[in-house]
Amino acid sequence: MVQPTGIHHIAVMTGDMKRQIEFFSDVLGAPLVAIFDMHGVPGGIHAFLKLDSGCYFSLVQLPQTADTPMTMGVTHAGTGAGNSAPGTMQHLAFYVENEDRLLAMRDRIRTKGVNVIGPLDHGMCKSIYFGGPEHLTLEVACPGMTVAPDRWIDPTVLAKIGISAEEAEAFANPDGYDGADGSVAQPPYDPAKPHLGYPAEAYKTILALSDTALAAMFPHSEPPVLA
């Protein structure tokens, strides 16, 4: 069955790229492995810091980002239990293998003068919590007990959000699908479906292009620094 198998990268906006890179490199120990003019975005800068093989923390800075207001409770949650607007990131949790590594990460972060809370035991994981630049709410977690759905899917919570037992069974067992060798055509535009936030007419023009034609218009496969 085809499904996502992990996170390639999480991209966070920043108005101070240097400050964020310094924090994630120095405080968390994530090496900077790429920074370049953002593909297809005039004035944009894109950076990647390596977390593990094939997994990165990414930063994006646009010319107007530093002047965009940050509002706690709207653009940022601010605390582990804080509110923010739908579709925004509530918090970001990084992974380590076990509790020994979790405590080592806590030690590293504290040696940089950054306050850390935890570990707190959530059963399914143990976590430490700390703040990052520009009001990021950050966590590092290690695995706890096995996440068995019959123990961790709470029927009372399903009822609170209007999920029936039949729906929960379907959500816990997605339909199997193995692809069609890339042959499935773009479906017709349906406003009821989720969409990227491009201007409507430009977006529909993009959707009308063949996959091959669109790929040919995006020649960014080579690294920015000549070998």
Query: Which second-level CATH architecture of the domain at 86-143 applies?
Result: Roll
The proportion of strand residues reads 15-25%
Percent of residues in helices comes to 25-40%
Task: Please state the structural category.
Answer: alpha/beta
Largest pleated sheet:
4 strands, mixed
| Uncertain stretches | none
Count the beta strands: 8
CATH topology of the domain at 86-143: 2,3-Dihydroxybiphenyl 1,2-Dioxygenase, domain 1
Count of DSSP helices? 7
Shape: globular
CATH class of the domain at 86-143: Alpha Beta
**What is the rounded Rg?**
21 Å
User: Span from first to last CA?
Assistant: 39 Å
- The fourth-level CATH homologous superfamily of the domain at 86-143 is 2,3-Dihydroxybiphenyl 1,2-Dioxygenase, domain 1
What is the H-and-E element order?
A: EHEEEEHEEEHHHHH
Strand order of the largest sheet: 1-4-3-2
Averaging pLDDT over every residue, what do you get? Answer: 94
Structure notes:
- The chain has helices at residues 17-27, 99-111, 149-152, 155-160, 165-172, 200-208, 211-216, and strands at residues 9-13, 32-37, 45-52, 55-61, 92-95, 117-121, 125-132, 136-143.
- The strands form 2 sheets. A 4-stranded mixed β-sheet has the order 1-4-3-2, covered by helices on one side. A 4-stranded mixed β-sheet has the order 5-8-7-6, covered by helices on one side.
- It has 227 residues and is of the alpha/beta class.
- The longest helix has 13 residues, at 99-111.
- The mean pLDDT is 94.
- Among the domains are: 7-63, 2,3-Dihydroxybiphenyl 1,2-Dioxygenase, domain 1; 86-143, Roll (2,3-Dihydroxybiphenyl 1,2-Dioxygenase, domain 1), CATH 3.10.180.10.
- It has 7 helices and 8 strands, in the order βαββββαβββααααα.
- Helices cover 25% and strands 22% of the residues.
